[in-house]
Amino acid sequence: MIIKNLSEQNSLVKQFLAEIRNVDIQKDSLRFRRNVERIGEIMAYEISKTLGFKETDIQTPLGIKPTSVLSDKIVVASILRAGLPFHQGFLNYFDQAENAYIAAYRKHTVGDEFEISLDYISTPDLTDKVLLLVDPMLATAWSMEKVYKAILKYGKPAQVHLAAVISAQPGLEYIQKEFAGENITLWTADIDPELDSKSYIIPGLGDAGDLAFGEKL
């Protein structure tokens, strides 16, 4: 498994990250959503460099231009509801992509303990396609693992890319162990060092779903 951390180099990703983490700027939910979306756009561009392209000739008003266009078939999959702005960022660039949506949540059992519950999966056939499984916060990585294993029932992808805005180091270590030996690349905009007692990323940014769409009951 390969991990790509976009914060290893200075770019606009760091500006957008600074804004979505900032407690004052977070009060503007529209700006929060757009910044998450823009991080998704940048990540989509970076991932596109690893994909398959084919040669073709384009007819312009004045002649023929040989060029390359994307040949891989893409499926963008996200976990509801926090994943929607991030998903849209990928879809803005992979505008011909198919889409998959998974309803997953933390089902609390005793105290701060919880398990990941999957309620719903809507996906096309994944066979021989490039799966982009995107979720803004990779905390424990339990939801990413469970969703990935569940969605494989709908076909074996040719490539798999996992994407997160912010990843916690414990989650990265967990998913590296669980997916050891698999041809998977995980892309993240930044890596934070730890989780708190409730398994939230520290320093993180808070609840991405609430910041994007408002608090839930």
Describe this structure in words.
It is a single chain. The protein has 217 residues and is of the alpha/beta class. It has one domain (2-53, 70-213): Rossmann fold. 30% of the residues lie in helices and 35% in strands. It contains six helices and twelve strands. The protein has helices at residues 12-21, 29-48, 84-93, 142-151, 169-178, 208-213, and strands at residues 2-5, 53-60, 63-70, 74-80, 98-108, 114-122, 130-134, 137-138, 159-168, 184-192, 194-195, 201-202. The strands form three sheets. Strands 1, 4, 5, 6, 7, 8, 9 and 10 form an eight-stranded mixed sheet that branches. A hairpin with a 5-residue loop joins β5 (98-108) and β6 (114-122). α1 packs antiparallel against α2 (29-48) and α2 (29-48) crosses α3. The longest helix has 20 residues, at 29-48. The radius of gyration is 18 Å and the shape is globular. The protein starts with a strand and ends with a helix.
Question: How far do the termini sit from each other?
Answer: 37 Å
Q: Kindly state the mean pLDDT as a whole number?
A: 94
**Count of domains:** 1
Element order: H for helix, E for strand: EHHEEEHEEEEHEHEEEH
CATH architecture: 3-Layer(aba) Sandwich
> Structural class per helix/strand content?
alpha/beta
Q: Class in CATH? A: Alpha Beta
- The tally of helices reads 6
**Estimated share of beta-strand residues:** 35-45%
Number of strands: 12
Contiguous uncertain segments of 5+ residues: none
Tell the overall outline: globular
The biggest sheet, with number of strands, parallel, antiparallel or mixed sense and barrel status, is: 8 strands, mixed
Residues in helices, as a percent range: 25-40%
Q: What's the CATH topology label?
A: Rossmann fold
Nearest-angstrom radius of gyration? 18 Å
